[in-house]
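Figure 3 (text version): structure tokens given as input.
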């Protein structure tokens, strides 16, 4: 993959202030992309924006709750107003919930279900809908699912359901947007070394952090970012409607 294949492309990233979103923002900027970053974390957005600009990159940021379509629309409109177009998007914003890996379906509260589905499923819908309305022909969108997009979870059912929704929504969008050359794909990370996973580790939730993989380790955010960059670039121009586990072989 050519290091400069994203030169001049305007790419929006939700969840861009930490974890995989932050790693993706750094990598795409280093390859010449112009970025619009959304997150709930204002301080995190300010920090990454300062870093990118100090390295000669271009970026705009906006605090955004992806559950709110008006905020999502304002974020994407800001990007287009600033840079004149949208070439690609990465929908990284997501949560595990307040009680991850603690409840089965029969134990799960409606409050927890609605929180997780609201961010992960509805948030992705809000983002994808607006992005498809403005993205250039031939653009590329990457939605972030999970290894639980293709598996069930006895004690994390709302998260699994929300990530299944991301996959179904993305494949449907790939079919409808293909006539414009717009591609929509899903990555399905396994356990990755991010702040969200660190919270689980601190809670001693072994089932969440010690998933067996042939490679015997967690993934790194930079490894996820590298594959996202591939899906955004021209080398993947015949790939759409696909899901890619990035899980160290856990799903093998």
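Below: residues designed for each position.
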């Amino acid at each position: 993959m050519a290091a400069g294949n994203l030169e001049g492309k305007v790419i929006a990233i939700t969840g861009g202030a930490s974890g995989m979103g932050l790693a993706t923002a750094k990598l795409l900027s280093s390859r010449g992309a112009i970025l619009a970053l959304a997150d709930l974390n204002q301080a995190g957005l300010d920090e990454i924006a300062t870093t990118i600009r100090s390295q000669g990159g271009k970026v705009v940021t906006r605090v955004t709750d992806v559950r709110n379509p008006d905020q999502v629309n304002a974020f994407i409109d800001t990007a287009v107003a600033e840079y004149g177009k949208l070439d690609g998007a990465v929908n990284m914003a997501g949560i595990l919930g307040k009680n991850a890996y603690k409840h089965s379906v029969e134990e799960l509260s409606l409050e927890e279900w609605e929180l997780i589905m609201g961010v992960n499923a509805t948030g992705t819908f809000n983002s994808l809908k607006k992005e498809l309305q403005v993205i250039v022909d031939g653009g590329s969108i990457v939605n972030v699912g999970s290894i639980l997009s293709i598996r069930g979870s006895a004690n994390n059912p709302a998260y699994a359901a929300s990530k299944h929704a991301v996959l179904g929504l993305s494949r449907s969008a790939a079919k409808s947007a293909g006539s414009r050359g717009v591609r929509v794909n899903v990555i399905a990370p396994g356990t990755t070394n991010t702040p969200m996973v660190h919270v689980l580790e601190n809670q001693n939730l072994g089932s969440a952090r010690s998933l067996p993989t042939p490679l015997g380790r967690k993934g790194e955010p930079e490894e996820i970012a590298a594959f996202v960059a591939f899906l955004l670039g021209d080398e993947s121009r015949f790939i759409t409607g696909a899901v890619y586990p990035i899980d160290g072989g856990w799903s093998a």
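The chain has a mean pLDDT of 91.
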